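Folding problem:
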Amino acid sequence: MRLALDTNLLAYAEGLGDADRCAQARQWVARVAQAEAVLPTQVLGELQRVLVIKARRSASEARSAVLSWADAFEVAESNWAALQAALDLCADHQLSMWDALILATAAEARCRVLLTEDLQHGFTWRGVTLVNPFLTPEHPLLQRLPAA
């Protein structure tokens, strides 16, 4: 099953947040590493900003972290079709442009799930279901993934 990761999961895995969330995020990253996981380009850009602004890492340190994530997972690039779809998501579902672009890019990459803490859990668009990996019980789609 193909799935995409949102910025918040990577930020937690980088150590930004409470210890419990960070540990859970690292477990999810290990678990999805065995699946067909992708990182939308927008996610990597947002991660760079979070690492520099919130974590106060240098631009060089942030670049290194972002490139490490890009080495570990396939990067799903945004394109014109994804941007057009994101515009529709903004108009039809009141998503922010940047969240909409992440969702649209995940759909273009043929993902079944977008792991995110920030968007509406359970919402499905173009076959992509938004799943908050921190909620219990675990969403049925996540039960298809191998254990960490």
Observations:
- The two ends are 16 Å apart (CA to CA).
- The CA atoms of residues 90 and 97 lie 6 Å apart.
- The first strand starts at residue 2 and ends at 5.
- The beta strands are 2-5, 36-40, 74-76, 113-115, 124-125, 128-131.
